[in-house]
């Protein structure tokens, strides 16, 4: 009986993890939603969070924006930094990530490099491997 309960508990835990019901990171969800609210969308644009990572005492978020204009299709990568402010979060910085930093294949590193302000921060970005 104990073994059956143990197996059932394991299956249930695995199912919860796979369906995303085992909880999540409320801070990550909050800053991701805030990042999506930062831009004013224009017709034909779509956006999605490409990633969010803890950094220093806050969070970094990368938002991918796809659109089309008179010259064709484009992709922008918007990097945001958020810091805690009371019970919520406030944006402290935003920059466009450089396409040369390969945000599609190394989003964490590209976000870090876009928002780094000091040589030591840039050096810490170099150690990231997505």
Automatic annotation (TrEMBL):
Residues 1-22 form the signal peptide. PROSITE patterns: PROKAR_LIPOPROTEIN. Residues 89-107 have a biased composition (Basic and acidic residues). Residues 89-109 are annotated as: Disordered. Keywords: Signal. This is Lipoprotein. It comes from Curtobacterium citreum.
């Amino acid at each position: 009986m104990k073994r059956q309960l143990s197996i059932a508990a394991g299956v249930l835990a695995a199912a919860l993890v796979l369906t995303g019901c085992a909880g999540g990171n409320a801070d990550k969800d909050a800053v991701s939603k805030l990042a999506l609210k930062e831009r004013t969308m224009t017709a034909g644009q779509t956006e999605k969070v490409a990633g969010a990572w803890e950094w220093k005492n806050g969070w970094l978020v990368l938002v991918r924006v796809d659109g089309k204009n008179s010259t064709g299709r484009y992709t922008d990568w918007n990097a945001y930094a958020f810091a805690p402010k009371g019970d919520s979060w406030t944006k402290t910085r935003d920059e466009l990530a450089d396409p040369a930093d390969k945000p599609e294949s190394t989003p964490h590193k590209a976000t870090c490099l876009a928002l780094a302000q000091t040589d030591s921060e840039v050096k810490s970005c170099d150690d990231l491997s997505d």
